Amino acid sequence: MNRRKKKPKQVDYIELVQHKIAQIDWKALVRYIQDLWLALPKLHQRALMVIVPIVLILLLLPSHEKSSASEQTDASNLNQRVSVDINTTGLSQQRSDEQQSLKSDVWQEYTVEKGDTLAQVFRNNDLAMSDLNALVRIEGSDKPLSQIKAGQLVRFKLAEDGKLDILQLEKNSQSVMFFRLSDGAFGRSK
């Protein structure tokens, strides 16, 4: 038993319409319209003889005056200059008074003591351990986070929500900075 579905036959609609038009008895249709016309009162016949051509002319002919007037106003609008007030100051420089007073603008410093690990530094300063894990993942081959030493200065800045925003490690005259990206991860600069 063949279970395949047969494709439906393609229908040629143009040929179908031509066939239907050919079946129309035009003489009978004209006689039917004439009978309807003659059944109308004379006043209605005269009114239809005036109204139907006027309506057909109005429908078929576009109004040139309206389209040319709208084209002229469109052309004049294209050539007009419009002043737009745009603040061209960079986003980092656009700080409101509220942003200036936030806790996130204050850097905190911690000097590493003998025996301290970076995990202890994070715990002592109430920083999230998940941030430490994220920082260690991008630490790099020079391992500045894994090799902190006594006397080293650790500076950090908190974001508005209290999470770590920037961490800076200073060793001798060099500095390594880790910063939070817009997606929540961290990036590193030397």
- C-alpha end-to-end distance: 75 Å
The CATH architecture term of the largest domain is: Roll
User: Under CATH, the topology of the largest domain is which?
Assistant: Nuclear Transport Factor 2, Chain: A
Number of domains: 2
Order of helices and strands: HHHHHEHHEEEE
Task: Give helix % range.
Answer: 40-55%
Oligomer: single chain
Q: Count of DSSP E strands?
A: 5
Q: What's the helix count? A: 7
Strand content: 15-25%
Please write the CATH class name of the largest domain.
Answer: Alpha Beta
| Overall pLDDT level | 81
List the helices and strands and how they pair.
Elements: H1 13-23, H2 26-39, H3 42-60, H4 64-78, H5 97-100, E1 107-111, H6 118-124, H7 129-137, E2 153-158, E3 164-171, E4 174-180, E5 186-189
Antiparallel strand pairs: 1-2, 2-3, 3-4, 4-5
InterPro entries: LysM_Opacity-associatedA, OapA_N
Pfam families: LysM_OapA (PF04225), OapA_N (PF08525)
Domain Opacity-associated protein A-like N-terminal: 36-63
